């Protein structure tokens, strides 16, 4: 007896007749010729054969202990305490998806409420949603939100030129349908956001975005002044901040931010080849801002018996309300990553978070000092995690020869920032060892000497 693993496949002819087609191929008639191709797939393998092959492939990977890596540029190797993974793998967290009947998921709602509460304290703004996709989409949502707050009368949003190329791509793609004009404000000779250029561009802008340390890792010295310029022009001020720096630096809310964004996955999650992530999104306690926030907000209330209960206070996503009224169409759930961040943050506490930031600052300073011996750091200032270094020889040669020596170098900036020349971005975190940096600098010295011969 034949078995049909695809539902209703036995009724294929009947269904085609019902919709007015004679063959499956007719369904693809509007696809350009040559675009529909048959997949030349190999014969299937047994589970054990797949297991063996996958382990052979995985065996080629090298850990950071075997190959020290200085690649950062937005994705960093942080230490994640073992208990974080254990707790989020509990079934009540691991299987919890978008809560369509949220009040029955009291445990998950409480965990997200704790996440919001901790991020609110960390970012210095009282209202935080229960996460976005990532930092890039959080910026894009902030841009759209500032336009809505101006009722569409202002459709320009300013970002710093010294911003991650990936974030720029996300922002431009995400806001294209809303016809937003995204304007890049250049850096000055110090690598800081050019305040004079900002004053020229800010007129009629819906919002201004700045990061507390820019893509080059350079700490922005004029965040408060940038906010004042934005507010004087009637624009909303959006500040991005890495949560691991907020134990040692002022919070965005204290610097005048109306909206703050960041990346929660730097706490509690491994690199995972760049994802999944969870974007932080926080606003001032202003009703107009709160009503225009994307995503969900979890609140604390009381049930019919007067007991504490957690509820979904605000849910302006298109899944929950009429689509025309939605503030965002973000549908997937980054709640597990947000819960991991909350667990890690609770583990660290204020003192631990401050110590984490101090260690990263010290390691970054040591990396900068040593790299200055073999290359040029283009801007002076305080660096956090990333440090740009300019070389006299093509960086692709340097990178290839570093790999031969068992070291993964930095992120090449020349493709996206050609004005910086043969410059690469090297990163340090709390996991970076002194001997790794010394080994890197020794290798760079040898490579440069060999190239000059």
UniProtKB/TrEMBL annotation:
Q: Please list the residue ranges annotated as the Glycine cleavage system P-protein N-terminal domain.
A: 3-443
Acyltransferase listed as a keyword: no
Q: Which SUPFAM superfamilies match?
A: PLP-dependent transferases
Catalytic reaction(s) noted: N(6)-[(R)-lipoyl]-L-lysyl-[glycine-cleavage complex H protein] + glycine + H(+) = N(6)-[(R)-S(8)-aminomethyldihydrolipoyl]-L-lysyl-[glycine-cleavage complex H protein] + CO2
- This protein's source sits in the domain of life called Archaea
Q: Name one Pfam family in it.
A: GDC-P
Q: What is its EC number?
A: 1.4.4.2
What InterPro entries does the database record attribute to this sequence? GcvPA, GDC-P_N, GDC_P, PyrdxlP-dep_Trfase, PyrdxlP-dep_Trfase_major, PyrdxlP-dep_Trfase_small
EC top class, as a word: oxidoreductase
Q: Which UniProt keywords apply?
A: Oxidoreductase
A Gene Ontology BP annotation from the UniProt entry: nucleoside metabolic process
The reply to whether rRNA processing figures as a keyword in the UniProt entry is: no
The protein's GO terms of the molecular function aspect are: glycine dehydrogenase (decarboxylating) activity
Q: Spell out the Gene3D superfamilies in the cross-references.
A: Aspartate Aminotransferase, domain 1, Type I PLP-dependent aspartate aminotransferase-like (Major domain)
Q: How does it assemble?
A: The glycine cleavage system is composed of four proteins: P, T, L and H. In this organism, the P 'protein' is a heterodimer of two subunits.
**Protein family according to the UniProt entry:** Belongs to the GcvP family. N-terminal subunit subfamily.
Which HAMAP family does this one have?
GcvPA (MF_00712)
Q: What does this protein do?
A: The glycine cleavage system catalyzes the degradation of glycine. The P protein binds the alpha-amino group of glycine through its pyridoxal phosphate cofactor; CO(2) is released and the remaining methylamine moiety is then transferred to the lipoamide cofactor of the H protein.
Name under which the protein is recorded: Probable glycine dehydrogenase (decarboxylating) subunit 1
């Amino acid at each position: 007896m034949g078995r049909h693993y695809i539902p209703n496949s036995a009724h294929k002819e009947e269904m085609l007749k019902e919709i007015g087609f004679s063959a499956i191929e007719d369904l693809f008639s509007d696809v350009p010729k040559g675009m529909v191709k048959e997949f030349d797939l190999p014969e299937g393998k047994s589970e054990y054969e797949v297991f063996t092959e996958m382990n052979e492939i995985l065996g080629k990977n090298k850990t950071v202990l075997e190959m020290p890596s200085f690649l950062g540029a937005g994705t960093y190797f942080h230490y994640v305490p073992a208990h974080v993974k254990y707790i989020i793998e509990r079934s009540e967290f691991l299987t919890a998806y978008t809560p369509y009947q949220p009040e029955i998921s009291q445990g998950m709602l409480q965990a997200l409420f704790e996440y919001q509460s901790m991020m609110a304290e960390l970012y210095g703004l009282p209202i935080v949603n229960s996460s976005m996709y990532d930092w890039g989409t959080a910026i894009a949502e902030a841009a759209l939100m500032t336009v809505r707050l101006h009722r569409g009368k202002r459709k320009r949003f300013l970002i710093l030129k010294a911003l991650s190329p990936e974030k720029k791509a996300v922002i431009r793609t995400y806001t294209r349908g809303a016809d937003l004009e995204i304007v890049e404000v250049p850096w000055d000779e110090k690598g800081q956001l050019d305040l004079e250029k900002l004053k020229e561009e800010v007129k009629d802008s819906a919002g201004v975005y700045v990061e507390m340390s820019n893509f080059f890792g350079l700490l922005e010295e004029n965040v408060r002044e940038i906010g004042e310029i934005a507010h004087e022009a009637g624009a909303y001020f959006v500040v991005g901040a890495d949560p691991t720096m907020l134990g040692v630096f002022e919070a965005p809310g204290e610097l005048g931010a109306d909206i703050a964004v960041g990346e929660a996955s730097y706490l509690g999650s491994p690199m995972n080849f760049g994802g999944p992530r969870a974007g932080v999104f926080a606003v001032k306690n202003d009703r107009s801002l709160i009503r225009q926030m994307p995503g969900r907000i979890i609140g604390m209330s009381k049930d019919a018996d007067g007991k504490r209960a957690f509820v979904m206070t605000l849910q302006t996503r298109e899944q929950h309300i009429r689509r025309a009224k939605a503030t965002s169409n973000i549908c997937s759930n980054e709640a597990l990553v947000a819960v991991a961040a909350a667990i890690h943050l609770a583990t660290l506490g204020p003192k631990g978070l401050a110590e984490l930031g101090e260690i990263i600052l010290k390691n970054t300073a040591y990396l900068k000092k040593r790299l200055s011996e073999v290359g040029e750091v283009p801007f002076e200032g305080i660096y956090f995690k990333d440090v740009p270094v300019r070389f006299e020889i093509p960086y692709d040669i340097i990178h290839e020869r570093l790999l031969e020596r068992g070291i993964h170098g930095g992120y090449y900036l020349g493709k996206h920032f050609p004005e910086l020349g043969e410059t690469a971005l090297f990163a340090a975190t709390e996991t970076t060892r002194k001997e790794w940096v010394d080994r890197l600098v020794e290798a760079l010295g040898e490579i440069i000497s060999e190239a000059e011969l």
